[in-house]
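Please produce the structure of this protein holding zinc ion.
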Amino acid sequence: MPELPEVQTFVNDLQRAQVCGRCIVGLRIHWDGCIAGMSARVFRRHVRGKTIATIRRRGKYIMFDLAGGDGTLLLHLRMSGRLRLNGEPGSHDRLALILDDGRALSFSDPRKFGRWRWVADGDAYLVGLGLEPFDRALTGSRFYELIHRSSRRIKVLLLDQTVLAGIGNIYADESLWRAGIDPELPGNRLTAIEAGNLLRAIRAILKTAITNQGSTLGKGVGHYANAAGQSGRHQERLAVYQRTGKPCYRCGCTIERRVVAQRGTHVCPCCQKI
Ligand SMILES: [Zn+2]
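Below is the modeled complex.
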């Protein structure tokens, strides 16, 4: 499932490809079900003929702000959604935006959980999301306050998009390993120093993962690839995620898989003791 680094990679790719400033002259809607909140007909009316002013990320959402106050197109990729600029048509394509320079921005999604939504005010719609991990307002002490008031397990807190926005299963496991923290530790048991270490770990890992253009954990159309169809490289850098049974890079103990909050969780039982 695409998380912050993968979603940011799409945003970076589309910005570099100068999609901003282009007018959406047409839409190909192959499956109406990928549009949330309104009919395909009304969605088309809101989008066709509008110019994409900016493209940005908030949590795991891609936001296409339309020029002139014409609202925002929101895209959540969920399990297997992908964006492709000017690629060959595929059997899992659900929607394509046709740009005025002839290019097509295609959305493919084999598992059909991804959703597009047009809203009048994108920021207002996403107001319930937590802080961005790189937000300057998120100091160590602010992060400590956020997690210290909860008795929920720290992994559950990291996955809660109303606490921090953008982290999913891969980068939660990786961050907790780097900080040496047991994913099942209740939030209110972390000290301020441990919370600070965890925030630093989250930022370092997300930053590296963005540089590596995200993680691709399998082959085929159901797995993440960037807007040019290329796999990410961060999967080669993962320390615990999907390394069950392999030795920990830090201490040599065997990585275990547990289930925490119904999510497969990868942990080193020796060096994640806090
Ligand atoms: Zn270890």
